Inverse folding.
């Protein structure tokens, strides 16, 4: 564990020095993410001009939800996205060879090697928006509730990661350039809507098989509404199952992988 | 075979290189978008206890969100980096050898993508007409569909110019991907891709009329849905032409100020290139 932490510190150093070499790109990326946050907040602000409640939530509750998925997105963009973007290229070009022979977990290395320094600035902004939405919430909130929400959002980031990996891993078999990444990004919209809108079979899809509704909506519901053990167990069970499924396909993929030399 | 046919055939082969991925992604994206939008708006209409909001019934809202993802693809044509990638990879110089200018080449590749998405739009339209014929999806009759698609092509010309402007920044900046994504955000939000523009406050709607955004997505979609009349469409197309002239001027200016002087950047050929858009012939 200590070895992995030390390695991660090296990743951070390397990523920051690399980002500083491309300052214009660094600035553009920050502005881009700010725009993404603004558009998302504006979308719900406009809707609340026409309705007092959305999925049973008031505007201030909805802002907690919006800031939560923005936070998950920011964590993911900072820590994981750059790495996962390059994964299909590594698989197709045979670059995975270099990672397989290293004395560290290839999944760890390939998922966390690049830390996006420009997105880190946006992560700070996202944390600010999240904190603001909590501080401006008119109901009483306990520190325990806030801690639980943060932990569940970190878990949400892991769900997001697993879903993204499951859309990329078919590259091992199809050798396509991106796998189903575009489809994954489209599915992201399910994360950006309250889970209560999904009914019937669609609810089963988005809360079990493609659990995007569990990323931010479930944690916020546990935070805003009374704590509900079945919801918590559901969240835990799906998260663990998804992690196991992702690892299974990762290992199957590695077995299928034909290296550059073969 | 004419040169443009070669270029178009080449691009088509690229688009369909990974067929299963392509169709799964395409159908999956459409399905997800429409299902989530339907569930979301259903909840809003039900909770409000209304059948119409800002001129949209629930079925019209569904149709709106069905057309938008494909319409946006027609608009945005080729992927981000269609020019910048060549600048960064150094393949930009190949146009020195090609018997056509970079803008002619890129217009055809852009149009090939747009045409392919038109085919997808027609396919989805036919599927809905066949299988959901009892719903007001029938609102979209063939005449409206054709007018809307032509409108999208004119809009694609404007968006293409805006995209070229962004892509040309690659001659100076080390990465333009974020800028191109920003352009898409702007166009989607202020063009009515996220939410129908009638939901925005009146002052915002009036302000937007001074920009090209409402004519890029909202008006073509409303045309397909049969919600806009001839006068609105004509005015919209005219305004788009004014924007084309404006952006063309900016492209010219940028090329003059460009730090490189490559013969292939023959901006004089641009008006001729733009005539390739079928919508221009219609007008």
């Amino acid at each position: 564990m200590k070895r992995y932490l030390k390695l991660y510190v090296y990743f951070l150093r390397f990523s920051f020095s690399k980002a500083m070499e491309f300052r214009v790109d660094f600035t553009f990326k920050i502005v881009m993410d700010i725009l993404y946050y603004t558009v998302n907040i504006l979308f719900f602000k406009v809707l609340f001009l026409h309705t007092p409640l959305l999925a049973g939530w008031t505007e201030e509750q909805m802002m907690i939800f919006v800031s939560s998925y923005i936070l998950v997105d920011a964590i993911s963009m900072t820590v994981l996205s750059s790495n996962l973007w390059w994964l299909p290229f590594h698989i197709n070009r045979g670059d995975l060879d270099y990672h397989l022979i290293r004395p560290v977990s290839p999944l760890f290395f390939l998922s966390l090697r690049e830390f996006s320094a420009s997105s880190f600035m946006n992560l700070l902004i996202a944390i600010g928006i999240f904190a603001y939405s909590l501080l401006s919430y008119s109901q009483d909130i306990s520190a325990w509730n806030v801690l639980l929400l943060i932990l569940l959002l970190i878990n949400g980031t892991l769900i997001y990661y697993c879903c993204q990996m499951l859309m990329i891993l078919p590259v091992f078999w199809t050798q396509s350039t991106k796998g189903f990444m575009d489809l994954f990004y489209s599915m992201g919209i399910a994360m950006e809507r309250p889970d209560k809108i999904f009914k019937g079979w669609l609810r089963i899809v988005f809360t079990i098989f493609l659990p995007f509704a569990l990323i931010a909506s479930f944690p916020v519901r546990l935070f805003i509404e009374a704590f509900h053990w079945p919801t918590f167990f559901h969240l835990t069970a799906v998260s663990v199952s998804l992690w196991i499924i992702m690892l299974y396909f990762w290992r199957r993929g590695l077995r299928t992988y034909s290296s550059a030399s073969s | 075979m004419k040169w443009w046919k070669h270029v178009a055939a080449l691009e088509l082969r690229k688009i369909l290189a990974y067929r299963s991925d392509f169709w799964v992604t395409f159908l999956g994206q459409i399905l997800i978008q429409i299902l989530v939008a339907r569930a979301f708006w259903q909840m809003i209409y039900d909770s409000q206890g209304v059948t119409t909001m800002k001129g949209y019934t629930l079925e019209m809202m569904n149709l709106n969100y069905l057309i938008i993802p494909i319409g946006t693809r027609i608009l945005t044509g080729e992927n981000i980096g269609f020019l910048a990638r060549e600048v960064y990879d150094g393949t930009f110089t190949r146009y020195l050898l090609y018997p056509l200018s970079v803008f002619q080449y890129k217009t055809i590749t852009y149009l090939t993508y747009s045409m392919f998405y038109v085919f997808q739009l027609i396919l989805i339209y036919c599927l809905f007409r066949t299988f959901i014929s009892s719903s007001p999806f029938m609102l979209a009759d063939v005449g409206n569909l054709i007018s809307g698609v032509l409108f999208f092509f004119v809009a694609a010309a404007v968006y293409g110019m805006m995209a070229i402007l962004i892509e040309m920044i690659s001659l100076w900046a080390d990465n333009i991907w974020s800028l191109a994504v920003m352009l898409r955000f702007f166009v989607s939000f202020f063009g009515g891709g996220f939410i129908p523009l009638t939901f925005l406050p009146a002052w915002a709607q009036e302000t937007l009329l001074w920009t090209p955004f409402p004519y890029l997505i909202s008006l073509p979609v409303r045309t397909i849905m049969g919600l806009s009349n001839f006068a609105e469409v004509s005015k919209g197309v005219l305004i788009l032409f004014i924007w084309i002239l404006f952006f063309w001027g900016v492209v010219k200016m940028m090329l003059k100020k460009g730090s490189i002087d490559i013969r292939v950047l023959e901006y004089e050929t641009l008006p001729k290139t733009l005539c390739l858009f079928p919508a221009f012939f219609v007008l």
Observations:
- Chain B has one domain: 3-282.
- Strands of chain B lie at 52-53, 56-57.
- Residues 3-282 of chain B form one domain.
